[in-house]
Amino acid sequence: MKIKNMLHMNELNLKNKKVLIRVDFNVPIVNNKIMSDMRIQASIPTIQLALKNHAKVIVMSHLGRPKEGKYQKQFSLLPIFQYLKKIFNKTKIYFSNNLNKIQINSGELLILENVRFNIGEKNNDISLSQKYASLCDIFVMDAFGSAHRKESSTFGIGMFTKIACAGPLLISEIKKLSIVLKNPERPMISIVGGSKISTKFKLIQSLAKLSDTVIVGGGIANTFLAIDYNIGKSLYEPKFIDMAKKIKHQYNIIIPIDSRVGTNFSTKSSAIVKKPFEIHNNEEIMDLGDKSIENMTKIIKKAKTILWNGPVGVFEFPKFSIGTKKLATSIANSKAFSIAGGGETISVINMFNIQNKISYISTGGGAFLEFIEKNTLSSIHMLEISKKKYNLKNNKII
Ligand SMILES: Nc1ncnc2c1ncn2[C@@H]1O[C@H](COP(=O)(O)OP(=O)(O)O)[C@@H](O)[C@H]1O
Ligand SMILES: O=C(OP(=O)(O)O)[C@H](O)COP(=O)(O)O
């Protein structure tokens, strides 16, 4: 992909225009408290740029995975609106869940409620995409963390809006990841964990091709373990077992040799280190065991380039945070060039206070892995189509 194949926000005259910006505010919120604000902070310059240019600024994002068509308080963007009110305290700022009643003036800011409350969002529904497009003169796609999703607010809208352009954060992420991956120093290792198995599993193969070693944790590792063992109630995806078998034989994949298991998914659960063949039906793997941690940190120490997405255990429960903490610390202490990204990975980085020891932190997790694999993403494709249409309309040679 070429950056110049997309329109950039800073090429356009935003003055008095209705500018709708899709950002990624998908941050962890517990009891109305934002646990990690890095993704919000990363979007602020884009919003400021639009306000400074005297646009009528509308911002939209998803938060979590609510059931569409239903308001659910725990997925509301209201805590983020409260947070933004403090930052934009000199700007008139509003919050709305009504797509039919939008009225703002130049220099004002409107935050829309979670787009995933809207029926059709996930399925990239045409009428919802048209509805979003009708709200603006210019659509700015700046949600790098969601740019791999072909949904109404990340893709469909661009098919109907007059102008769709890339925001500064999206451009900056693409540029930085492209530079880093051009000629990585070897050995290069990738660490992939977390719970979003269906998004990430398909990407392991290309990551394995690119890297000298791939370390797996979380639900990804469990899917590899399920090839040979009964892993009880552990999180895994049976539909990826065949793919796991193939990849395991073809590439250098480091699978845990022991794990911390518990009997219930709770902070109160006991944590016992077990070998994979010792796991009972009523147990679930929630972290790496000590021998696995030792092996994996040895590999990390020798690496010259490290890519990391996804916690290797349920780091939110102290007894199951050991593996993630040890690997994260080892990455932080390494002299290798390290790239880490993902919503929860950023929370881990904040939790262990290692943000200054990671060479590059991406706001995307699944998006960053998919970009590495394909060198493009659904939203980038949408922006390229949109620029071609724009150039045709303006009689420019494309
Ligand atoms: N063994 C496991 N079982 C269940 N959940 C896990 C396990 N290991 C990690 N997780 C969970 O994975 C989540 C993060 O996954 P994911 O969203 O894929 O990461 P990221 O946002 O960094 O891309 C965390 O909330 C963590 O508790
Ligand atoms: O947090 C996100 O992805 P990530 O967990 O891979 O970093 C993005 O906001 C995408 O969210 P989604 O995976 O629910 O589409």
Automatic annotation (TrEMBL):
Keyword Nucleotide-binding tagged: yes
MF term (GO), any: ATP binding
Keywords from the named record: ATP-binding, Cytoplasm, Glycolysis, Kinase, Nucleotide-binding, Transferase
Residues that hold ATP according to the record: K200, E316, G342, G343, E344, T345
PANTHER family assigned to the protein according to its UniProt record, in alphabetical order: PHOSPHOGLYCERATE KINASE (PTHR11406), PHOSPHOGLYCERATE KINASE 1, CHLOROPLASTIC-RELATED (PTHR11406:SF23)
Pathway: Carbohydrate degradation; glycolysis; pyruvate from D-glyceraldehyde 3-phosphate: step 2/5
Residues annotated for (2R)-3-phosphoglycerate binding in this entry: R39, R116, R149
Gene coding for it: pgk
PROSITE patterns referenced in this protein's UniProt entry, alphabetically: PGLYCERATE_KINASE
Cell compartment(s), UniProt: Cytoplasm
Reactions performed catalytically: (2R)-3-phosphoglycerate + ATP = (2R)-3-phospho-glyceroyl phosphate + ADP
Organism from which the protein derives: Buchnera aphidicola (Stegophylla sp.)
One GO cellular component, as annotated: cytosol
Family: Belongs to the phosphoglycerate kinase family.
Main location, first listed in the record: cytoplasm
Top-rank lineage group of the source organism: Bacteria
EC annotation from Swiss-Prot or TrEMBL: 2.7.2.3
Uppermost EC category: transferase
Protein name in the entry: Phosphoglycerate kinase
Xref: InterPro entries: Phosphoglycerate_kinase, Phosphoglycerate_kinase_CS, Phosphoglycerate_kinase_N, Phosphoglycerate_kinase_sf
Quaternary data: Monomer.
GO biological process: gluconeogenesis; glycolytic process
